[in-house]
Amino acid sequence: MFNVKLDNIFKTYSEIKARKGNRTKYLNQLIVQLEQKMHRDDEA
To answer: Where are the beta strands (DSSP E) in 1-44?
Structure first.
């Protein structure tokens, strides 16, 4: 879907689950950036 190749998805998922603190940092950053873009587009 995003043209991202994950070699071992189960290992990657386990590593994400094992993170301390913010486990979905990429998704949170994506949300913030999308909201900022929509706000800028509303002002234009």
So the answer is: none
28 Cβ contact partners less than 8 Å away, ≥ 6 residues apart? 22
> pLDDT, tens digit, for every residue of 1-44?
578 888 899 998 999 999 999 999 889 999 999 999 999 999 98
User: What is the pTM (predicted TM-score) of this model?
Assistant: 0.58
38, 32 Cβ separation under 8 angstroms:
no
d(CA 16, CA 18): 5
Q: Going by C-beta distance under 8 Å and a sequence separation of 6 or more, which residues neighbour residue 24?
A: 16
